Amino acid sequence: MGAFRALRGARAIAARLAATLAAAAVGLPAVAVAHGVGDRYDLPASLAHFIAGATATVALSFLVTVLVARGGGPAGRARDMTLPLSVVGPLGRGLGRALGVVVFTLVLLAGFAGDPSPVRNIVPTLVWVGWWVGLSLVVAFVGNVWPALDPWRALFDGADALLRRAWGGRGLARGVPYPQALGLWPAALLLLAFGWCELADLRAPVPRHIAGLALGWSALNWAGMVCFGPAIWQARGDVFAVYFAALGRFAPLVPSADGRGLCLRPVGRGLIEAGDAPPGGVAFALAMLSTVLFDGLLGTRLWRLMDGALDAWAPGLDRDGYVLATAGLVAVWLLLLGAFLAACRVTSRVLRPAERRPVAPAFAWTLVPIAVAYTVAHNLGYLLVRGQELIPLVSDPLGRGWDLFGTADWTPDMRLVGPGFEWYVAVGAVVAGHVISIWLAHRVMLRLVTLPRRAALASLPLTALMVGYTALSLWIIADPLVRLPDAHAPEPRAASLRSGPDDEVDLDRAAERQGGHAHRGPGGQAAGREVARVLGVDRWIVGEVGEVDAHHHRAVEARARAAQDGLEILHDLTRLGHGAAGDERTGLRVHAELARNEQ
Prior knowledge:
This protein has helices spanning 2-5, 10-25, 47-69, 88-113, 122-141, 146-149, 151-167, 185-199, 207-228, 230-236, 239-250, 269-273, 281-297, 301-313, 322-350, 359-363, 368-386, 390-395, 419-448, 452-481, 504-513, 524-531, 538-542, 564-577, 584-598, and strands spanning 41-42, 81-84, 253-255, 261-264, 482-483, 544-548, 556-559. By secondary structure, it is mainly α.
């Protein structure tokens, strides 16, 4: 068990990894999800009651919106409060750009020259947790700080200024006209590709792979700036600039017109002021929703059943899950996009001929609050738990045994966030996001339709869509997070991180209830990759995990090219349990043994 001691938080990680191995081996629903952080939560009422209450709240909010907004008109706005920054503004932008360049350099240095272990290297946690999740929430709830941090723009502007000073002329940008028909389509497709790299690619946690992606994106991003100019490219093709700009329109803080202060505005007003989305804007807004929703879908039993069905239909076709993951991500995006376009088409039929115009672009940005809500619902607990790992990692970013700030031995509290907290935050965020979206959509409708009664009637299709989105998102969130009664597959307490020696009787009974027969769970490949998605430490520890084949009494066959630590962990589990996937009783005892070590 020496490999466990070498990892930060290793005992907690190992116990959760063993619980998932055992659950996968006996065909029980595992508690791990792509971004989960805790055990399942026992709902005080049925899931149907929660979904019914949430959808009813969203539907009733439409009635309140119609009554409140009816007399205000679309032009009503609150007076902005301006916060002067004077000298602090330019200084803050300069420091922010310097910080962005330093962090970008650290990602490249640690990725290529640091420890290859995703656990000891800061790159995976910094990029996927700190930057992608953490910064997204900061931008959405505070303001768009990305322009002040963007290292690619900072390095481009620096090189451009040097070139102008040395040679004169117009600098690096060539000024090629950007095709207006492209609009945001490059950014939309790049966002889907980035979501695939995060959620489907088994190399996502590998530091060298992340650094390679950063270099590849640097070449593409700078090429776009050179061709079309930095302002045009970042407004249309730079996926991260477009993404953070969309989130920033939801935020309450925005730079003042002269750039010397900050304006405080109502949440979401920037989305209305943005006007119609350019070509591809609808696809981009739906990509924001679909990537987060697909992240949650990966943790559901439905996904494991589909993975198992594909494995049974065509064994060996999708060993690494790329085929199903790619098809699933694209299908979720197309389904959400199709539903939104269908609702907009029905809305256009309600409008009078004089009022008709392209409806979908007018309402595209009103979907951003739902994307923000999904991000909070799926990732807040993940951020609070996994974000703690940055504390020890900043002291040893390259995994060289350093202790620069005296925090290298700090141990994250893996129990900081409970499943009950996650569930109620998720429900509140989903309901609030859809309510805000309905409010914004109706304000936009009042610009298209002058009569309030006709505006309310025209808003009904989009409201019905919001109610459907609410029900779907809550079901996806609940499936891996809450415990649902299932007479055919009772869950053992092996899924609990805190179980210990006293739980061995329960483990024995759970194995006996399965009849002592080894059988394949919901898809051998799904079970193997479920190990690779354990509660946020997922692929970051295991790397690429082979198929768990209980039917043939094979244990776990790991191809940990990405993380040698994962190979050592799985080998230790195999030696301890003599094949965690081949023997239900022994597989469940693996967790008890690891829990004893934890205590």
